[in-house]
Every structure is written in C-alpha cells, then in structure tokens.
Write a structure and sequence with these properties.
The two termini are 31 Å apart. This protein has 7 helices and 5 strands, in the order αααβαββααββα. The protein has a 5-stranded mixed sheet. 56% of the residues lie in helices and 18% in strands. The chain is an alpha+beta fold and 227 residues long. Helix 1 packs antiparallel against helix 2 and helix 4 packs antiparallel against helix 6.
C-alpha cells in the first residue's frame, strides 16, 4: 500500500509540471489571439488616423503619446506571452521593467526616481516575477500620478528568507478611508492585495499626509526563487 501511494505521488509530480506547461501555453495562445490582436488593431487604426492630423495641431503630440503607450502595452503583452511559453528568465528583467515604468506616462520631470537592489539577485519563478512586477508597477503609477511626491524610490531586496519589494514616496499620502475600502470604480489597491494573496505574499501599505506612502510586498524565498 505504501509503495502504491509513493508511486502515485511520483506520477503526480510528473503530471503537475506537464499540466502547468499546457495551461501556460493555452493562456499564451488566448492572450495572443484576443487581447494582443485587439491592441494591434487599435494601434494601426490610431496610426492611420494620425496621418490626417496636422503637425501643428495641439492634439498631435497627445495622440502620438497615446500611440506610444499602446505600442508599449503591445510590447509588454508580447513579453508576457514569451515568458509564458519560455519560463526561463533572469532577475535583471524585473529591475529593467520597473525602471521603465516612469516612461509610461507624462510624469513631472522634477521627480527624483530610482530603483535600488539589495542582496544578491536570484532568478525568480516566472509567476512571481510577473506578479511582483504588476504590483510594483501599480504602486509606482500611484506614486507618480497621485501622490504629488518629489521623491519616489523602488527597492528590491533579495534576502535569505524572502524577496521584498518596497515602493516609497514623500507625497501627500492616501486618504485612510480610501486605503481601507478603496475608491469607487478604482481597483488598484484591491488588485495589489489580491495579487499578493494569490502568490502567497504579504502586502503592507502604510500612508500618512506627513510621511508619504510605502507599499511593501514580501514573498517567502521558498516561493519566490527558482531552485
């Protein structure tokens, strides 16, 4: 009986990665055939429309910027699909991706923004890398667009016992009511909490009008790092 159960566990251990690979491929195909194709179509339509917009029109630069953001989203989509199909990735990708968030929106030029890395960088699980980026990106966009901060810092810490990402700003803080319940029809804070819970991480958000806001995500090393 013991041997039979052991054999079943071994078979399950083989089948689970195969099922995960199959699921990843299916999701990648769905993303490519639906969401990515929709963005590509919108990009082409906007590009054609821009041809008829006079160069001196005040709308020209704004529409160019929108097209740039759409194209950036397309590139992110392609990278996500590639990561789903080829899960091997390096730790530096996350640093590069977070550093580039500032370029997604017309952020004030007087913001002092930096990304720091503490500890020895290690390869991350593909799912952890993707979800950590999404949480970090949302926290950074909130800091850039809503905090009124002059300083924004993102720190990645590769520790023995966990991976931590912190986004700090010296802005006006988040209203306690919004921090607790969220803002109507805005899902950023709730989305970060849901992503953190989904990957077995712990998300802590502290904020005040005098000290600004800090978003800290902690993920146990047994989950975060590729072994």
């Amino acid at each position: 009986m013991f041997r039979h159960n052991k054999k079943q566990r071994q078979q399950g251990a083989v089948e689970m990665p195969d099922q995960l690979a199959s699921d990843r491929t299916r999701i990648a195909q769905e993303l490519h055939d639906t969401l990515l194709q929709t963005f590509l179509s919108a990009s082409m339509q906007l590009y054609v429309a821009l041809i008829d917009v006079p160069a001196e029109s005040p709308l020209k630069s704004r529409l160019d910027r929108i097209l740039e953001i759409i194209n950036r989203g397309i590139e992110e989509g392609r990278n996500t699909i590639q990561a789903l199909r080829s899960p091997d990735s390096c730790a530096s990708d996350l640093v590069k991706a977070l550093t580039g968030v500032q370029q997604e929106f017309p952020v004030r030029q007087d913001i002092d923004f930096r990304v720091r890395v503490a500890g020895r960088q290690q390869p991350l699980s593909p799912v952890i890398q993707q979800e950590t980026y999404r949480i970090g990106r949302e926290a950074l966009l909130n800091a850039f667009c809503h905090s009124g901060a002059k300083q924004v810092e993102c720190e990645l810490e590769y520790a023995d016992h966990d991976l931590q990402i912190s986004v700090r700003d010296n802005g006006v803080g988040i209203d306690p009511q919004v921090l607790h319940k969220g803002r109507e029809r805005h899902w950023g804070l709730a989305g970060m909490r849901e992503r953190a819970e989904k990957i077995g991480g712990l998300l802590d958000i502290s904020s005040s009008a005098t000290a600004g806001t800090e978003v800290r995500l902690s993920i146990p090393s047994s989950i975060a790092f590729q072994l």
